[in-house]
Structures are given as structure tokens and as C-alpha cells.
Design brief:
Layout (H helix, E strand, L loop, with lengths): L12 E6 L9 H11 L3 E4 L4 H4 L9 H12 L3 E6 L6 H6 L26 H18 L5 E6 L13 H15 L2 H8 L26 H29 L5 E2 L1 E2 L11 H5 L6 E3 L9 H15 L5 E5 L18 H11 L2 E6 L25 H15 L7 E2 L3 E4 L2 H7 L11 H14 L4 E4 L10 E4 L7 H12 L3 E5 L21 H4 L1 E6 L7 E5 L5 E5 L3 E5 L3 E6 L8 E8 L2 E6 L2 E2 L1 H15 L11 E8 L2 E8 L5 E4 L4 E3 L5 E2 L2 E4 L4 E6 L2
Parallel strand pairs: 1-2, 1-9, 2-3, 3-4, 4-5, 6-7, 7-8, 8-9, 11-12, 11-13, 13-14, 14-21
Antiparallel strand pairs: 10-23, 15-18, 16-17, 16-19, 17-22, 19-20, 20-21, 23-24, 24-29, 25-28, 26-27, 26-29
Helix pairs in contact: 5-8, 11-12, 14-17
Length: 673
């Protein structure tokens, strides 16, 4: 088995992307001196350096990189070494302009940014394999090498190309997936609108059409594009495994659901030796720490529950949003340690020294433009000391309470055109259900719909539109075995080819939910409905309603008005040893909390009314012990009860009965026993 821990790293990872090529060599010595002052243990090097390493075809210059790696090693700093294949040099594109990607409407991108690559292009594949081989042959045995970092943020900003090379590759992919063109016709439903194909050579990518195209074709093209990028990752990974055995290979994911929607991270998580993730706060007015927790939980789940690594985030503001506020004092450490609480083996940043030139010169860094006499620098030094104090938690695992189902293929399918309501957003429902669980102080694992769910007392399904028959059977077994299932509207509707399951909706979930849906009844913009609960109280809902027919399920909440007035809005179905709940409308936060309270009673998930809102309590446990992270995102000091006494690792103080956490602070208690 390949190694999964950065080689030679004995504590938690702390550092960032280091781009010494942007600075005179005279600055490098100062860099490593300040890295040591801050407690930096690892940096990422060489990610965007292809043009410097191979300045002309077949001409190589590794001298500068030799000196950088030797300097870092001499100062005890480990290296996450990049293969620079995210940005081929301009000379490559001059020789192979067809390696630049083409959009669905036929425009070819120009050189001058990053990630603009046709991943089907044979010349790109050969050149990427060559530079990766050269790096591995030269640095496989370098004493600073801890981790190989392939490419950078696959799928960002371009995931799919629509050129003729991709068309030919797509046809080969379809032939391998389906065997015959008749099977493609059946899966895509090409009898509709006269789209039947007589041979694979007649099939093109889903390029621009005068009205909506074939949704099943578009869905398969997303799968093809993801698989093609993954092929290129595997090619580089296999070179590194062969030439540099014993050093783990990764690539940095972007699992936050708002930041990369083109990659199936369930599939990618099986390909890397160590799951790593980049996370940047979306400062849109919402509670950013909730989205952070969600991204961290999803990353850990992609890693199969194993420890992972936060490979990039920001010390303060970023530069690519419409408005880029600075982080408030203490927020950087709080954000970093929230990732660690949820399984990360450290906190890395983009980048070490803030750039003076280029598109990201206003993106914050560990060493700001203002140097060491800045708040950011002082907080960086403090965070380094905190991570060093937490080194004993390494290799422990985050303990989850419940599961949320997520599938990128379903998300892709829901986002295709001509759905019942453009106001329905699968990601919004995932966010809303996650936030409701977060506010009940429940730690979440994400799971694939066909995964083993038996360990979870409660499984939540937020708008999983696409669901295979196998997934439906899996959820039925889960409930029959004693689990509690909570399903949101517009779930289980279509199969893996975006074909509506035979029979009444919700196809794959009819039996487990004990109901059918006669008709979707989405609401007009701005319209709302009320649903009435068992005690007569009402809840507000909007966007979506349904005509639900119970077929074994009991009605718990009823539509008080709207298109489905008098019909079931929320149902509960006893099946075997468990129960399945269905929510047929878009409830707000209060409504979701009310339903979760009832479903939580069925699941015997403990309520935690003694924990303040926006104070996270997360546990990591393993061979070295059990650790309680308490993260106070509020402006008020918090007191959290402790069932078990212990020692607070950041202050060294004893803790018993309760732990006091100042406003905006973090405490980590090693529990006794």
C-alpha cells in the first residue's frame, strides 16, 4: 500500500505555497528564517513553475529548484513538491495551439491564465508525463521531499473541452461504457425529438444548440470530462509511484459545494494517497463558519473518515470575490482549528509571501506586504505555536453523529435545464439541512447513496434527484434494520441516465417512504404556503409543494393552504425496525429544526440544549486518546459542560465540570481515561 502520511513530518502540517521564483534569490534566506520563527513545518513548491523548469522544449533548468529544496531541508522544512502541469509554457501552446480548450459554442481560449487545457490532447499528455518524469528522477531521493502534489485544483476553471479531439475521445469513452450505439440510444432516450444515432461516429459533445439538448447526453459528458481529467492525474501519479516509492501522491481538491461542481470527489478520493483540500470562505453574508464545517466534513468523508490535510486556505481576505473583507482578529486561527477538529492534519495556506505582481497580489498571505509588524503575521506565529501544541492529536479521527447523503452525479443532473422550478437548488437544500444539523450540535459524515449506512442512527437526504435502484434498495435495508431516514422533496426521481423511474414518483424511494407523489406543484416566485403540525402550530414554506398520496405513511404536517391544501406535507413511515420521514416542501430553518427534532427522537440522537449557538463541539479520538474541540464563533464568552475531566492543550490548564471558552477563541481538551 502507498504511504498516506507526508514523509518525515512528525507533527501537524503548517505552512503554505512557497513561490521563491517570484522573488530575488537574496530574499530566500530571509524567507526560511521567518518560516522557522513562525513554526512552519512544510511548504508547497513548484506548482506553477513549468516555464522555469523547461524554458524551451527539451531544455531544463533545475538549478534554482535544487537550491530552494536544499535551503528548506537545511532549515528543517519539509516539501510538498508540485508537478507544474496546470500551466504548460507558452512555447508549448505555440507548438500545439489545439491543446487549448474549446467552449461549447466553439470559441478557443487563449494562453495567459491557468488551467486552460484540453485534457484529451495527446501532446499535452506526453509533455505532462515528461516533466513529471524529469522531476521524479531528480528529486525522488531528496531528503526534503514529503509529498508529491500533482497539477493544481483539477476542474478549476475549465473542466470540459468541446473540441474535435474531445469528440473522438468521447466516442471511445461511450464505446467502452456502453458497448454498442444501440445501448447509448436506449440510455439517452434518443427516440425523443428524433435524435437516434446510427453509429458512434455520429455522436458529438453537447455543443451549442438552438434550444435545450439531450439531458442524458449532457450528464454523460460531465462524467466523461471528469473521467478524462482523472486519467491524466493517474498517469502522473503512476509515474511518481514508480520512480519515487514511499512518498505519497496527492492533488488538492475543492470540495466546498460552491467552489467546484465538475469533479466527482467520491471517485477521486479513491485515487489519491492522501486527501487534501483547498477551502476559501464565501463571504456572502451567511455564517461562513457553517460552510467551512460542511466542507471539512465532506472532505473527511471523501477520505473515508481517515485524516486529511487542508492544503490551502487564506490568512485573511481573498481577491476574487466581488467584495473581499479581511478576516477579523482571531478568525484565522479559529477557522484553521475548525478544519483540524474535523479531521485535517494541519493548516496550510495560499501563500507564504504575498505577491507584488500578478492576478493574486491582493490575496492575503502568511507574510503580508506589510511584513512582520502586522496583525496577520503575529496571528500566523501564534497559530504555529498552537498547532505544535496539538501535535499529539495526529492520526486520531473525528467522531460523527449522523450522515448526509450526497452524490455529485445527482447534482450535475439537477443542474441541467428544464427542471420544474429554477428556484429549487440542490446545493441550497444541502446547505440548509447541514446548517440545521450543525445548529443541533451534530457532527456530520457525508456518504454516497450506495454506501454502508448501518453505523448512523439518522441519515438525511437533501434533494437527491438522481438515485439508482441499488441506492433505493440500500436505503430500504437501512430503515428496515432500524435506521431513521429523513428525505427532502424531489429525491429518487430519476435513474443514472436521467430517466424517470418507472411508475409513480418518488421512484427509487416509493417503498421506503410509503407514499407516491401524484404531481409536483412548484410555487411562483415569492409565493409561500403554511403547513400545520400535530400541535396545531404552523410552519412557513416556499418554492415547492407536492400532491402526496400516503401508501402506508402517516401524515404529520399538512398543507394549510396553497395548491396542495389539505394534503400531507410531512410524513412518517414505519418500516421494519426503523422509520422514514419525507418533507415535500421547502421549509425554512425553524421548520427544518422542528422536523429534525421529531426524526431525532426516532433515531435517539441526543438533543444538546445546553450548548450555545455557534459554539462548535467536535471530538477526535484514536490511539493517542480522545480530544474535545470547542470553537466559539460568537462575541460572547461561552461555558460548555464536560462529562469527562481533562487537560486543555493550548493553555495547559486542567478542565473539569465545564470548559470556559473566551469569545472568538478555541479550546482543545485531552479527556482523561
Amino acid at each position: 500500500m502507498p504511504e498516506t502520511t507526508p514523509k518525515g513530518l512528525t507533527g501537524l502540517a503548517f505552512g503554505g505555497d512557497y513561490n521563491p521564483e517570484q522573488w530575488p534569490e537574496s530574499v530566500w534566506t530571509e524567507d526560511v528564517r521567518l518560516m522557522r520563527e513562525a513554526g512552519v513545518s512544510m511548504v508547497s513548491v513548484g506548482i506553477f513553475s513549468w516555464a522555469l523548469l523547461e524554458p524551451a522544449p527539451g531544455t531544463y533548468d533545475f538549478g534554482w529548484l535544487d537550491r530552494v529544496l536544499d535551503l528548506l531541508h537545511a532549515n528543517g522544512i519539509r516539501v510538498d513538491l508540485g508537478t507544474p502541469t496546470v500551466v504548460p509554457p507558452v512555447w508549448f501552446f505555440r507548438a500545439h495551439p489545439e491543446a487549448l480548450p474549446v467552449t461549447a459554442d466553439g470559441r478557443r481560449y487563449e494562453f495567459g491564465s491557468r488551467g486552460a487545457i484540453c485534457h484529451s490532447n495527446a501532446d499535452y499528455r506526453a509533455a505532462a508525463a515528461n516533466i513529471t518524469t524529469r522531476l521524479a528522477e531528480r528529486y525522488a531521493d531528496h531528503p526534503a521531499l514529503a509529498l508529491w502534489h500533482v497539477h493544481n485544483e483539477y476542474g478549476v476553471p475549465v473542466s470540459a473541452c468541446y473540441c474535435d479531439s474531445c469528440a473522438a475521445h468521447f466516442r471511445r469513452w461511450l464505446a467502452a461504457e456502453y458497448g454498442t450505439v444501440d445501448a447509448v440510444n436506449e440510455a439517452w432516450g434518443t427516440a425523443f425529438w428524433g435524435q437516434r444515432y446510427g453509429g458512434f461516429d455520429e455522436i458529438n459533445p453537447p455543443r451549442l444548440t438552438p434550444t435545450v439538448g439531450n439531458p442524458a447526453q449532457a450528464l454523460d459528458y460531465k462524467r466523461f470530462a471528469d473521467a478524462t481529467i482523472r486519467e491524466n492525474f493517474r498517469a502522473e501519479r503512476d509515474i511518481l509511484h514508480r520512480l519515487s516509492p514511499g512518498v505519497p501522491v496527492t492533488t488538492n481538491f475543492m470540495t466546498a459545494l460552491s467552489q467546484c461542481d465538475s469533479i466527482d470527489y467520491w471517485a477521486w478520493g479513491r485515487e489519491v494517497d492522501l486527501v487534501t483540500n483547498d477551502h476559501y470562505l464565501i463571504t456572502d453574508g451567511r455564517r461562513t463558519h457553517v460552510n467551512l464545517a460542511m466542507a471539512a466534513d465532506l472532505t473527511r468523508s471523501v477520505a473515508g473518515g481517515a485524516p486529511w490535510l487542508l492544503l490551502e486556505h487564506s490568512t485573511s481576505g481573498v481577491n476574487w470575490q466581488p467584495r473581499n473583507p479581511a478576516k477579523t482578529p482571531g478568525q484565522m486561527a479559529r477557522n484553521s482549528l475548525a478544519h483540524v477538529a474535523r479531521g485535517s492534519e494541519g493548516a496550510m495556506f495560499f501563500q507564504w509571501r504575498q505577491s507584488r505582481r500578478g492576478a493574486e497580489k491582493f490575496h492575503s498571505a502568511m507574510l503580508p506586504h506589510g511584513g512582520t509588524d502586522t496583525r496577520v503575521w503575529r496571528e500566523v506565529v501564534g497559530l504555529g505555536a498552537s498547532l505544535d501544541a496539538l501535535r499529539e492529536i495526529r492520526s486520531t479521527r473525528t467522531v460523527a453523529d449522523v450522515a448526509v447523503l450526497w452524490d455529485w452525479h445527482s447534482w450535475w443532473a439537477q443542474n441541467l435545464e428544464w427542471r420544474p422550478s429554477e428556484d429549487h437548488d440542490a446545493r441550497e437544500r444541502a446547505d440548509a439541512f447541514y446548517e440545521a444539523l450543525y445548529d443541533r450540535h451534530l457532527t456530520v459524515d457525508f456518504a454516497h447513496p450506495e454506501a454502508d449506512l448501518s453505523a448512523y442512527p439518522l441519515v438525511v437526504v437533501p434533494a437527491l434527484y438522481l438515485m439508482t435502484e441499488a441506492a433505493g434498495r440500500n436505503l430500504t435495508r437501512y430503515v428496515e434494520g432500524g435506521g431513521t431516514l429523513l428525505v427532502s422533496y424531489f429525491s429518487g426521481v430519476v435513474d443514472e441516465h436521467d430517466a424517470v423511474h418507472e411508475g409513480a414518483c418518488p421512484g427509487a424511494l416509493r417503498d421506503v417512504l410509503g407514499l407516491t407523489v401524484e404531481e409536483f406543484a412548484p410555487l411562483l416566485e415569492g409565493d409561500t404556503v403554511r403547513v400545520t403540525g400535530p400541535d396545531g402550530t404552523g410552519l412557513a414554506a416556499d418554492v415547492w409543494t407536492e400532491f402526496v398520496v400516503p401508501r402506508g405513511a402517516e401524515t404529520v404536517w399538512t398543507y394549510a393552504d396553497g395548491p396542495a391544501a389539505g394534503r400531507p406535507a410531512v410524513t412518517r413511515h414505519r418500516l421494519g425496525e426503523g422509520t422514514a420521514w419525507y418533507v415535500s416542501t421547502r421549509l425554512g430553518a425553524d421548520g427544518l429544526d422542528a422536523v429534525l427534532a421529531r426524526a431525532g427522537e426516532d433515531a435517539r440522537v441526543p438533543a444538546r440544549p445546553d450548548l450555545p449557538r455557534d459554539v462548535e463541539v467536535v471530538r477526535r479520538a484514536g490511539g493517542s486518546g480522545s480530544y474535545l474541540f470547542v470553537i466559539n464563533h460568537t462575541g460572547t464568552d461561552a461555558k460548555v459542560p464536560l462529562d469527562t475531566p481533562g487537560t486543555e492543550l493550548l493553555t495547559g490548564e486542567s478542565a473539569a465540570g465545564r470548559i470556559e471558552v473566551p469569545a472568538g477563541a478555541v479550546r482543545v481538551v485531552r479527556l482523561d481515561g
